[in-house]
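S.,

Sequence below, as promised.
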Amino acid sequence: MIAEGSFPATAMPDSDWWSALWPAPGRVLADLGIEPDLDVVDLCCGDGHFTAAIAQQASRVAAIDIDPRMLELARTKVAAAAAGHCTFIEGDAYDLAALVPWPADLVFMANTFHGVPDKERLACAVAAILKPSGRFVVVNWHGRPREETQVLGKPRGPMTNMRMEPTDVAAALEPCALRLEHVVDLPPYHYGASLRQADAG
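The prediction came back faster than expected:
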């Protein structure tokens, strides 16, 4: 069962193949250039696969998801990692400004942006809570055919027609003055697009 209000085609996958695809989430954060001691929002955090790694190095974390069951799983993973300074918030991603009481250095969103129906609305919600030099990091599947992105012997990820390349992400966020800064390849099937406020210099 998927929580009401969840974005299409963004349900949390089974933990076995998720862990097979992302065996070292902390290394992914390092590859993305996510520094320690930041104020971070893990938006649509799911079961906390990345949240625990973020919370181990961030100054504080707001983990947001619309599904309370996912938040409980995330809470368990963060506790098991002995990571602190993490607040778990049930809510709609579009309502980000009302959910997070402090400006963020970084908003992190993994494997979800492709399914957001109103991408401009979400982008503007993210931009509204970022510090002037803050970043929005979007982890997405490359635009390869789904039958080519196999994990544990089966095709995984969103349908081919929902996938976005970094230029698509940049175009969706540009109306809210978020500009593509750089892209990091995350083998075997993903990339991380880092976007920053246009006037951040």
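The chain has a mean pLDDT of 91.

Coffee later?
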